[in-house]
Amino acid sequence: MSTPPRTRSAFEATAACRTQMHLARSGVVSPEMTRVAEREELPAELVRAEVARGRMIIPANVHHAALDPMAIGLKARVKINANIGNSPTTSSLEEEVAKLRLAERWGADTVMDLSTGKRIDETRQAILDAAAVPIGTVPIYQAMEGLRHAEELTAERLLRTIERQAEQGVDYMTIHAGLLLEHVPLCRHRVTGIVSRGGGLLARWMLEHRRENPLYEHFDEILEICRAHDVSLSLGDGLRPGCIADASDAAQFAELATLGDLTLRAWERDVQVMVEGPGHVPLDQLEHNVRRQQEVCHEAPFYTLGPLVTDIAPGYDHITSAIGAAIVGWHGTSMLCYVTPKEHLGLPNAEDVKQGLIAYRIAAHAADLARGDQRAAAWDRELSEARFAFDWRRQFALSLDPETAQAMHDETLADDYFKSAEFCSMCGPKFCPMHNFKDVDWDAIGRLVAQRKAARAAA
């Protein structure tokens, strides 16, 4: 659905700081906060207070005119991010916009443009012009364009890239500023080393130059760019574990501690922050990971990739990760980065994107249910009532994927007659338990139970 262009008041347009956090701390309920309150069915004042506190962010670059504002935080529904982007060998501008449309159709709340190929600025502009959802990036990817080796990067090149993307309208950026030179040796005995693309580039740069991470050393300049355009920071976990054996190790948690310090520095400048979390974590460590992030990072929204709870299922990692995603969402993660069946294997196609998003919408909805979201519970109840009433069309309409639900039903019972039949092909007309349950004479059952109780009492 198209949204009207966003506008700001003259005061907001000329203020030195343009962030939602600054407005919230100044007591202003912005149009973006009002829209979030409407979408989340929350009081606008609560939204303002959560943004002011840093527990909720509204990624809303002042230049992103097509945006329909949304929120990420504990008081909001659990959100889902989808990744798109071209590469040096695949995809075109038109294909990336088509991927955006596909991601929006299947329920992505935000989309990250991870383009590394040609016409990056032009591709991103086309995405921003079309996107009603917030758009995120990892600026170091574009900063590497035209370079052969990570050590050729400069701080000036990184800052120029960040500023250019901010001016375009990017709503949030992954900045791996928490990976320090002293953390790199902690990865020495890992099974899979450093698996973050951005983290790997920066680690190589630091080891080659024997200097500190340029994103850390120039963090104050990055904050000034974010203040000027209201870019939310997604503090990247460059040392996230890439396999179960490396989960919750010293490297991961050393970087997390730095991310907690950077969160406070960003808040001092009224810059919105969320913190990225691990990719591979076993079930028994999931709750601890969420609790630790919330404590160390002062309840800033947590944004996790998965996590994958086992490493043995290439081709099915949308499932291994959705299991972990549902659990961390239940315990307090605010946004889940989807994983497709092609994770670890190749570039996802349209069907992979759909499968990843459906898996993550299930995970996010399950987390919302566990967190007591009444809208989620009402949706489940409505579908269950349609199922019990054998209202097949209503059941299809309420499904996450109506076309697939109907297609599966119609494989064996395609005629219109079966859209009102009180059975499916699993149990058939004679053995459907719900159908048989409807035939129970409850008055007679009540009398029988009363008689038996009376007989036991008399005995």
Task: Walk me through the structure.
The protein is of the alpha/beta class and 459 residues long. Strands 3-4-5-6-7-8-9-10 form an eight-stranded parallel beta barrel, surrounded by six helices. A two-stranded antiparallel sheet has the order 1-2. Helix 13 crosses helix 14. The N and C termini lie far apart (70 Å). About 2% of the residues have low confidence.
Number of helices: 21
The structural class is alpha/beta
Q: Biggest sheet: strands side by side, in what order?
A: 3-4-5-6-7-8-9-10
Q: How would a crystallographer describe the biggest sheet?
A: 8 strands, parallel, barrel
Average predicted confidence as pLDDT = 92
Radius of gyration: 25 Å
Q: Per the principal axes of the C-alpha atoms, what is the gross shape? A: elongated
Strand content: 5-15%
Helix content: 40-55%
**Quaternary status of these chains?**
single chain
Cα distance spanning the termini: 70 Å
Number of strands: 10
What does this entry show, briefly?
The chain is α/β, with parallel strands linked by helices and 459 residues long. Helices cover 49% and strands 8% of the residues. Helix 16 runs antiparallel to helix 17.
